[in-house]
Amino acid sequence: MNGFTIKKPNLFWKILSYFADLPIDHLSSEFNPNIGLYLSRGQFKLVSDNAIYSFGMQYRHFVAAFRKIKVHIRKPKNILVLGLGTGSIPQMLQSQFNITADFDFVELDPEIVFLFEKYLDFIYTGPYKIYCKDGLDFLESNSKQYDLICMDIFEDSTIPIKFESEKFLSFLNSALASSGILLYNRLHATPEDQELNKKFLETFSKVFPKYQVINHEYNWILVSEKNQASFNA
């Protein structure tokens, strides 16, 4: 794919992107052999062969989840995002929910980190740190606690099995601050997805016995709060 670089997200390109996806950039790495960045419906869309990794303000299942947990009232100050993409999560929290926070991003693929920082001026303007490492390795050595954790790690359209383990979920729980809240994103589009989600809930409920499922279009977001007494399921 031949890409071009937008010097600024002007109105012409945004309007044009409502009629066709405009190729912006392309990358290939040992983790993602074919990743394309497009301008689509006025937003950056990062896609692999079989999945959308991020889609600006169009990443609607997270928008629905943030509304459900009333993130604009909670106003989290420390946020961990596992799986960066092109920064849909911090973009929508800042632009749509007026959240000012310190973000820690964990992303294994240095090429995706490169894309995020290349187009950062169009995405997000707040403080952040990026950890270019495996999500499990990060949590194993992490001592920080977060008001909000967004788990959004995929390899193409699947979640690697280690990120479904009780060990990983326990690390997530330990990283939550008092009354911190976890949003764990999963696909729920096919019968296979749905069967895998049923099995995963058996593990998830061991670590997070009180949770709710936000079912939005093709995704499930599992929600659980550290302080279960204040969590409305």
Please explain how this structure is put together:
- Helices cover 30% and strands 27% of the residues.
- The chain contains 8 helices and 11 strands.
- It has helices spanning 11-16, 60-68, 71-74, 88-95, 110-118, 135-141, 166-175, 191-207; strands spanning 22-27, 35-40, 43-47, 52-54, 78-82, 102-106, 128-131, 146-151, 176-187, 212-216, 219-225.
- The strands form 2 sheets. The chain has a 7-stranded mixed β-sheet with strand order 7-6-5-8-9-11-10.
- α7 crosses α8 (191-207).
- 36% of the residues are buried.
Q: What share of the residues does DSSP label as strand, in percent? A: 25-35%
Report the sheet with the most strands, covering strand number, pairing sense and barrel closure.
Answer: 7 strands, mixed
CA radius of gyration:
17 Å
Uncertain residue segments: 229-233
How many helix segments?
A: 8
> Within the largest sheet, what's the order of strands?
7-6-5-8-9-11-10
Order of helices and strands: HEEEEHHEHEHEHEHEHEE
Helix % is 25-40%
Oligomeric state of the chains present here = single chain
Write down how many β-strands occur, each being a DSSP E stretch of 2 or more residues.
11
Structural class: alpha/beta
Average pLDDT rating: 87
**Any idea what the shape is?**
globular
State the separation between the terminal residues, measured CA to CA.
45 Å
